[in-house]
Design brief:
By secondary structure, this protein is α/β, with parallel strands linked by helices. Helix content is 41%, strand content 19%. The longest helix is centred in the C-terminal third of the chain and has 22 residues, at 303-324.
Length: 329
């Protein structure tokens, strides 16, 4: 009697019946995300440019995600306190960070951080750029960059520039300015940025580099005078203000930027959802108008390109910090 053939058909039938019910766990996670509030950490204080941008994003992301997006301010140590908190959370997309250019300076200022900016975080997307603006008090006799350079050269080390502290964009731009112009100036760091701006307005400090998000309102209000912008081209909100490159300083390009990152290990499907929703928000006319009023330019960079920007900026500012011997406050 011939041996019996294995009875595989019922088993195959069972598998076929079950296959439509099976989906990868990552798909389930993406379909369920988000099932509760998403927190966006702004590693700087309330009212700062990254905080303002984070709140605009949160307002418009919430209805798209179907859950509240809550902005949590965690200021301190050039943004590293806030990022340390994000690094300590689960990699599930429920804790994000709204970051800006200064965070790429932090590794050079604080070499013993318990996280790695490149290794421990992944980009969600770049929001946009904002140029720095070189300003003086509207009461100042200085009306142009050549006049400021001439005064600095005639009084070496006597004039001062303000910033919100060591390693901030205003500090780095001031140091770079003295390097490319061959001048000397004192650095006047402040623990509170509004106080620094107030002293420039009053003429107690000679000049300052400010992000356009903070500078435009003061310039249009008549309390500050813009001498130059530090981006690669003029900005729409200050069309009459030349770039540093136009004035002959072709290597002087300093731009702030804001973007969103998540913790490394966040499921790919969740990251894709966040990137997609962020990109959609940035296409909304109301959002574009509000960010443009702050002097911010939108950008079409991909998340991967944003990751490359973080790496290149970290390298660039680390070199400047080391060459200038900049130390944290």
């Amino acid at each position: 009697m011939a041996g019996r053939r294995p009875r595989v058909l019922p088993v195959l039938g069972l598998v076929a019946a079950l296959l439509p019910l099976w989906r990868p766990a990552t798909s389930d996670a993406a379909d369920a995300y988000p099932s509760r509030a998403v927190h966006m950490v702004a590693p700087w204080g309330a009212g700062t440019p990254p905080d303002i941008v984070a709140r605009i994003l949160a307002e418009h992301l919430s209805p798209r995600l179907g859950q509240p997006v809550v902005v949590d301010n965690k200021p301190g140590a050039t943004g590293t306190l806030g990022l340390a908190e994000v690094a300590g959370k689960p990699a599930d997309g429920y804790t994000l960070a709204a970051v800006a250019m200064p965070i790429t300076v932090a590794p050079a200022l604080y070499p013993h951080l318990n996280f790695d900016l490149v290794r421990d975080f992944v980009p969600v997307g770049l929001v946009g750029w904002s140029s720095n603006v070189l300003v003086v008090s509207s009461k100042s006799e200085v009306a142009s960059v050549p006049e400021l350079v001439a005064r600095l050269k005639s009084q070496p080390g006597q004039l001062a520039f303000a910033s919100g502290g060591n390693g901030t964009p205003a500090h780095l731009a001031g140091v770079l300015f003295t390097q490319v112009t061959g001048t000397e100036a004192k650095h006047a760091p402040y623990s509170q940025l509004p106080q620094a701006v107030g002293d420039v307005i009053a003429g107690r400090v000679d000049f300052m580099f400010m992000t356009s998000i903070a500078a435009v309102a003061q310039i249009k209000g008549g309390t500050l005078r813009a001498l130059a912008v530090t981006g690669p081209h003029r900005i729409a909100t200050l069309p009459g203000t030349p770039t540093m490159a136009e004035l002959g300083y072709t290597d002087f390009v300093v731009r702030d930027w804001t973007g969103v990152i998540a913790k490394t290990g966040t499921p790919d499907a969740v990251l894709s959802r966040l990137t997609r929703e962020l990109k959609a928000v940035l296409q909304e006319p109301a959002v574009r108008e509000r960010l443009a009023q702050l002097g911010m330019e939108m950008d079409a960079e991909t998340a991967k390109e944003f990751g490359g920007l973080i790496r290149s900026e970290t390298s660039r500012w680390s070199r400047l910090v080391r060459s200038a011997g900049i130390k944290p406050d």
